[in-house]
Amino acid sequence: MTILKISIFFLALFxxxxxxxxxxxxxxxxxxQATLCQGDDMHLGDREIRFKKIVSDSRCPKNxxxxxxxxxxxxxxxxxxxxxxxxxxxxxxxIAFGNNDIVSSADISLAEFFKNSDxxxxxxxxxxxxxxxxxxxxxxxxxxxxxxxxxxx
Length: 153
Hints:
Blueprint: H1 2-20, E1 28-37, E2 41-44, E3 47-57, E4 72-80, E5 83-92, E6 94-97, E7 100-103, E8 108-109, E9 119-127, E10 142-151
Antiparallel strand pairs: 1-10, 2-3, 3-4, 4-5, 6-7, 8-9, 9-10
């Protein structure tokens, strides 16, 4: 009889540990993606993100051996209800590897611009990718953004 009581005790303990450690209902996200040219806006309801310009592009050109992969810095502006909320320099994440682009995820919070929200930039891809001997003008650049926003269940 004691073995049965001990077994029930451990079964109840395991059950409570597993139920207690489970995550709450997962958050739902509204995900939007847009490719912007200089001056274009990404509309997110009453909020907007505008691609203003490329601040710097030190990415290693295609078919060139570099010690460092480099990075591209993008200046974006944030608007809510048509009013400028601020601007921020964000870093692009794409790296050329042969003929393929490798894109890592980003996690750039926009809470400082959009209060009481869970807006995040999850991906920043800047094209074109640099090539040796070719200077890219501001007008040639485009920025692909993937933005997520937590929504109420």
